[in-house]
Amino acid sequence: MKRISLLSPRLANQIAAGEVVERPASVVKELVENSIDAGATRVDIDVESGGVKLIKIRDNGSGILKDDLALALSRHATSKITELEDLEAVASLGFRGEALASISSVSRLSLTANTEGQTEAWSVRVEGRDMEPVLSPASHPTGTTIEVRDLFYNTPARRKFLRTEKTEFGHLEEVIKRIALSHFDINFQLRHNQRVIHQLRSAHSALEKDRRVATVCGPAFLEQAVCIDAQAGDMRLWGWVGLPTFSRSQADLQFFFVNGRVIRDKLVSHAVRQAYRDVLYNGRHPAFVLYLELDPAGVDVNVHPTKHEVRFRDSRAVHNFLFSQLHHALAEVSPEHHLISQN
Ligand code: ADP
Ligand code: MG
């Protein structure tokens, strides 16, 4: 007699999907990151009903070979790393080979792609847990279009946790903002129920970047922020630091990127809080858009499946660098702050 049996791969994916796919916004994050990893310069995101009914993402990246299409949907299938050593210096946003497997196990998904050199496009479709992927010829320029319909249609317990269309779209829009602020060179369009919500042209010059920041964070932030750009060893910190006069009642305008990846990190938050400590009233929150760049080997991104957390090899150096640069920038614009901190 036996009581233990192996889960079917798709059931295992559905269970694992809980880690990566929480709501439409997390699907959009994973898919747009895939487009970026594929070298796309234009990504169009179309959603219906807050993304619950449909998320459609079209890019002009490298596309996927016909023979890789079905494989791309299986767990631990990735083109981004092959050796354990690759993890040490991973530069792509994805690498775990989990997103498509997870998403396809809890939705109706189709993936259509064409590559440079392939004579025709192909499409693969899966639905639910037990269906084998179905391949069919399609029409598509070089690049990829992915359609995710009816998220959680086969996992009612998960679907129950979804909020209103408006709330879900709000989360999704946040994701797009973060990505737009970390990839200035990419054109993004976000449409909701056929209406264009954000149209962001690629930004190369400082002026164009300012414009994108103003579009994403609001013009008032840009008017009340100082630019910083500082280097120490192999670390660089640059971006926009909101003046104390632009403090907020909520921590809703705080963007921190490490090597192009959005992160939420205790160490980073602590350094920022310390730097603003003397210039902000209690209960007020600073606004900032900051980019930390450092040797990928100095930061571990493989801490959590959503990759929101990181671990710095030399966390003390990172903390000191952040604090001193921000403190310096704020002292320059508010002289009293300088005095207070020197006493
Ligand atoms: P990961 O991004 O961790 O590699 P995913 O499940 O997100 O895993 O994707 C699996 C693979 O499918 C990727 O490694 C990549 O080769 C391919 N892929 C997914 N989306 C795209 C895309 N938009 N353009 C090109 N290739 C893609
Ligand atoms: Mg991915």
Automatic annotation (TrEMBL):
Entry annotated with the keyword Transmembrane helix: no
Keywords: DNA damage, DNA repair, Endonuclease, Hydrolase, Nuclease
Gene Ontology process terms (BP): mismatch repair
GO cellular component terms, A-Z: mismatch repair complex
GO MF annotations in UniProt: ATP binding; ATP hydrolysis activity; ATP-dependent DNA damage sensor activity; endonuclease activity; mismatched DNA binding
Residue ranges occupied by any DNA mismatch repair protein S5 domain in the UniProt entry: 213-331
Tree of life domain: Bacteria
Family of the protein in this entry: Belongs to the DNA mismatch repair MutL/HexB family.
Function: This protein is involved in the repair of mismatches in DNA. It is required for dam-dependent methyl-directed DNA mismatch repair. May act as a 'molecular matchmaker', a protein that promotes the formation of a stable complex between two or more DNA-binding proteins in an ATP-dependent manner without itself being part of a final effector complex.
Stated name of the protein: DNA mismatch repair protein MutL
Naturally occurring in which organism (per UniProt): Zooshikella ganghwensis
